[in-house]
Amino acid sequence: GEGRQRDEEGRQRDEEGRQRDEEGRERDGEGRQRDEEGRQRDEEGRERDGEGRQRDGEGRQRDEEGRERDGEGRQRDEEGRQRDEEGRERDGEGRQRDGEGRQRDGEGRQRDEEGRERDGEGRQRDGEGRQRDEEGRQRDEEGRQRDGEGRQRDEEGRERDGEGRQRDEEGRQREEGGRQRDEEGRQRD
Question: What ranges does the record give for the region Disordered, renumbered to this chain (predicted)?
Answer without folding.
Answer: 1-189
